[in-house]
Design goal:
Elements lengths: L17 E4 L3 H12 L6 E5 L14 H4 L13 H5 L2 E5 L3 E5 L4 E4 L4 E3 L2 E4 L3 E3 L12 E3 L3 H10 L5 E5 L3 H12 L3 E5 L7 H18 L3 E3 L4 E7 L2 E7 L4 E3 L2 E4 L3 E3 L2 H5 L8 E3 L10 E3 L4 E5 L4 E3 L4 H15 L12 E6 L2 E7 L8 E5 L7 E7 L2 E8 L5 H10 L5 H5 L9
Parallel strand pairs: 1-2, 1-7, 2-3, 7-19, 9-16, 10-11, 10-16, 11-12, 18-20
Antiparallel strand pairs: 4-5, 5-6, 8-17, 13-14, 14-15, 20-21, 22-23, 23-26, 24-25, 25-26
The chain binds flavin-adenine dinucleotide and nicotinamide-adenine-dinucleotide.
Nicotinamide-adenine-dinucleotide (NAD) binds next to helix 5 and strand 22.
Length: about 425
């Protein structure tokens, strides 16, 4: 297939391509999977960013720290798209979907017809709803250029206020400390990552950051971002105090990018709703990655996962499903990772906030070399290995099996995980 005009609504007579909206990790992986599954027809990958698809994890880690060079963040080398006959249309937003006509409309008014449509529109950062949020020096982190803006302010002695002690907040705090900045983290909840990890393990991250000189403040209410001449100078809190800041990084969560789907009449509820084949309420439209709230057969409910592995793997299922393979079902156990200072971790499983009744540690969390397991009714819902490696497969197997385990054996490093 050629470039821009291929598969356009006007290009009648030609076989319609598979169109993917959202040219990031999920979109690029879908294009790759379609070719791997033998699809020989057209593939059009449309993205509003000007960069070819790249990965976001380095943006708060190696790329922000300056240890990962720009050319290492991309999903594929530039020539890969041509070599695989993928029509890559960058710097172009899709503004509407016409499910009946099987077309999408681009911001420049052009239309592209589709046989099947995949939405990998991802998510967008939530804005801080307080006065002063629009000032210079208030920084969010989603795109490569955001990471570059943050990197530019991480200088020795710079006062950086981070709002939100989630993944973005903590990884940015670690990078800021590595750059020699003074960091204050302001979190509404009582501990970092509380909703995901629960109190027992969240405490490990609080201790980690305090040990690295971060001023962590919990249970705070941010009421205003102060400033002079349109540039931020501090964060006003509910108790009337102000934290002085040369820059403020906001990481208070994301919202799935569902506007297109909703306007097209697709079912949307905390993401674009899909079945286990990642098919939306329209049989020719699929969704994957951060934007998809997909029925998960293992958990028997819809879940939306905001992590890298999900954006790598779901598109493979969606690709096969779009090609009519009935066994294409997404039932992988969620997985994610993080790196902060000298702590590296992986997490596999799924726990709703407060959805466990016990945490079992294998190893001492104070040493930051341990595995934590979240249990309910004696079954392992999730496990997280911290500075312990090559254990993801047996933990995933424990989660998937749903079998009851002996907590004493679980805690005993002498008992191989595979034998539980
Ligand atoms: C800084 C950062 C660090 C992260 N680190 C980790 C990590 O360490 N581990 C981990 O597991 N996960 C991490 N994540 C999460 C992970 O990057 C996301 O889960 C993943 O990027 C989701 O991929 P996606 O393709 O679904 O969506 P996105 O990456 O959000 O991409 C969606 C793309 O679609 C485009 N788009 C949206 N609407 C339209 C439209 N209408 N028309 C055209 N294009 C459109 C967007 O511009 C964007 O380029 C991190 C995220 C961030 C931001
Ligand atoms: N290692 C990783 O997996 C990784 C790394 C970076 C980003 N990400 C992804 O990027 C996305 C964004 O990350 P994030 O850290 O912004 O979201 P998050 O949901 O992980 O954390 C948001 C944090 O902000 C807090 N918060 C919310 N409103 C607040 C307010 N008004 N004042 C103070 N605190 C407030 C919440 O209590 C929570 O602790 C997520 O999808 C995340 O999974 C993942």
């Amino acid at each position: 297939m050629g470039t821009g005009t291929a598969g356009t609504a006007e290009g009648g007579g030609r076989e319609r391509p598979i169109v993917i909206v959202g040219a990031s990790l999920g979109g690029a992986k879908a294009a790759e999977a379609l070719r791997a599954a033998g699809h020989q027809g057209g593939i059009v990958l449309i993205g509003e960013e000007h960069e070819r698809p790249y990965e976001r994890p380095p943006l708060s880690k190696g790329y922000l720290l300056g240890t990962t060079p720009r050319e290492k963040i991309y999903v594929h080398p530039p020539q890969w798209y041509g070599e695989n006959d993928i029509t890559l249309r960058l710097g172009t937003s899709v503004v509407a979907i016409d499910p009946a006509g099987h077309t999408v409309t681009l911001a420049d008014d052009g239309q592209v017809a589709y046989a099947k449509l995949l939405l990998t529109t991802g998510s967008v950062p939530r804005r801080l709803p307080v006065p002063g949020e629009e000032q210079d020096g208030v920084l969010y982190l989603r795109r490569a250029e955001d990471s570059e803006r943050i990197k530019a302010v991480l200088r020795p002695g710079a006062r950086i206020a981070v709002i939100g002690a989630g993944w973005i907040g903590l990884e940015v705090a670690a990078a800021a400390r590595a750059a020699g900045a003074e960091v204050t983290v302001l979190e509404a909840a009582e501990l970092p990552l509380l909703r995901v990890l629960g109190r027992e393990v969240a405490q490990v991250f609080a201790d980690l950051h305090r040990d690295h000189g971060v001023d962590l403040r919990f249970g705070v209410q941010v009421t205003e971002l102060t400033g002079t001449g349109g540039t931020v100078s501090g964060v006003r809190l509910g108790d009337g105090t102000t934290v002085a800041a040369d820059a403020v990084v906001v990481g208070i969560g994301i919202s799935p990018a569902t506007g297109l789907a909703a306007a097209a009449g697709l079912e949307v509820d905390n993401g674009v709703k899909t079945d286990q084949h990642l098919r939306t309420s329209d049989p020719d439209v699929y969704a994957a990655g951060d934007a998809a709230n997909a029925f998960h057969p293992l958990f028997g409910k819809h879940i939306r996962v905001e992590h890298w592995a999900n954006a790598v793997n779901q598109p493979q299922t969606a690709a096969r499903a779009m090609l009519g393979q009935p066994d294409a079902v997404y039932d992988r156990v969620p997985y994610f990772f993080s790196d902060q200072y000298d702590l590296g971790m992986e997490y596999v499983g799924y726990v709703e906030p407060g959805g466990y009744d016990r945490v079992v540690f294998r190893g001492d969390p104070a040493t930051r070399e341990f595995i934590a397991f979240w249990l309910a009714d004696g079954r392992v819902l999730a496990g997280m290995n911290v500075n312990v490696w090559d254990v993801t497969d047996p933990i995933r197997e424990l989660v998937r099996s749903g079998r009851a385990v002996d907590p004493k054996a679980l805690a005993d490093p002498g008992v191989p995980l595979g034998e539980l």
